[in-house]
Amino acid sequence: MEKDLLQQVLDKLMEYTLSSNEDISTHLKISDNLEEIAPDVGKYIIEFAYRDIYSRDGLTNQQRALITLSSLVTQGTEPQLELHINTTLTSWLTASEVVEAIIQLIPYTGFPRVLNALTLAKKVFTQRNLEVSYNEETKLVSE
Fold this sequence. Notes:
By secondary structure, the protein is mainly alpha-helical. Helix content is 66%, strand content 6%. It contains eight helices and two strands, in the order ααααααααββ.
């Protein structure tokens, strides 16, 4: 991949990546963790997902993040879901919007997967020092 294109792709990846908290799961950490046994996986994530898919026109980062979040909840892929709850928040969706998106999936994927997703969301919110509370008047409130 040429240097300018690679930088554009890395810039797109960083739009979804919180780098200020070492405890947060990121695509870069996944690549580093798999370097010894599957060094090409990181390259595939960057070159395919972020060059060919995430860089397309037609959707905002927030829309892409919600679509990915929904897909991962329905698949029950918790490690990847934790990563993408983070990317969703980094894409400027609120914690309340993440919770509402997950709740919206109950009729389509069922309570067990939604409960697992909400548990992971709570973990990520704690890591990021976000508070979400339920208030009868305003429903979900992010602080």
